[in-house]
Design brief:
alpha/beta; eight-stranded parallel beta barrel; 35% helix
Length: 417
Amino acid sequence: MFRTATNLLRSATAILALLSNVRAAPTEMSKRAVAFDYNANKVRGVNLGGWLVLEPWITPSIFGEWSSSRTVVDEYTYTKTLGKAEASSRLQNHWNTFITQGDFNAIAQAGLNHVRIPVGYWAVAPLGGDPYVQGQLDVLDKAINWARGAGLKVMLDLHGAPGSQNGFDNSGKYGSIDWQKGDTVSQTLTALQNLANRYKGDTDVVTAIELLNEPAGWSLDMAGVQDFYSKGSQTVKSASSNFAVALHDAFQTDWSGFGGGVDSVMIDTHQYQIFSPDEVGRSPSEHVSHACSLGPKLASTNKWIVVGEWTGAQTDCAKWLNGLGKGARYDGSFPDSRWTGDCKGKSVGSVASLSSDDKNNIRSYIEAQLDAYEQHTGWFFWTWKTESAPEWDMQDLLAGGLFPQPLNSRQHPGQCG
């Protein structure tokens, strides 16, 4: 998940340019070769964030003992600090309890048809010297069967690459961006090869593999990213032609000519309006208007395109959303931010504890995004479950009546015209 202010502003501008530059033609959308018809049907999905790749804000209890020292801020420092035996014991418990078969059934019962499952390279192609522990794939194998039983399709998302492709804690290692240095790209291709080979017999369920989550286009060599995407597509397709290949837009301006010669290519763009002072300072109606403005631009692209991450949040108040121990732009407690409003009730808690105004604004915002993002291929909400972040927790939003049921139900119809 993308959480850097300057870069998110850049991403918002970039994706508008990206989509406005793409011709309104269906010629590059693949003839159907996967087990879901992405031309005829909408993706209505949710991310299983914080499960097989840790994020402190999703499960703060896992990181609570370091809340004062702030010496453990991601999965890398978590496993390094605990050591492999203790880290493995704790993470096995987390993997086996945080998401279960019951969650997959509940997702399907809510009318969704996809899940996007983040996984780190260390789960499929561990490197010597890394502190990470393994065992995720045994759980992922179960998840594929749970999805099959629930009638859900799965996008597997390589969320963390060797060296970190963006420096975010959700890449596994917070800090510097060292992907593309040394052998990190070839190591990432090995991870993709292992992932595709493991699930090439499950393409009735695993319909797409995302080559890399949120590579930092503002910092990386983009020619190198495009070369990686080309090689990664070939790697995945060599395992099975029945996989669609998802490419995150890397916050760049023009992908209209990319992916030629590769069947079943899907662009993934992530849309948040909270990771800069200007964005988080928007009024509720401005958030809705901005979301609606994206719809026609999505509709004009000539490739499949999903909004692979988005949220009901109009604030960045969720505890540790911006990193362990860090404050929020919304209330001015994050560096170089200004006060917009109070985070009371939004930092931790439940949907039930939100104010009536907050509930109405979140419902309106979610409805607008659904209407906008379904103007092309569809969407994956971020995220299914959190410990205490009410604006982000789809399970809680559903229970609280803020996420439409059925999905086409509207309390605020016609917001996008």
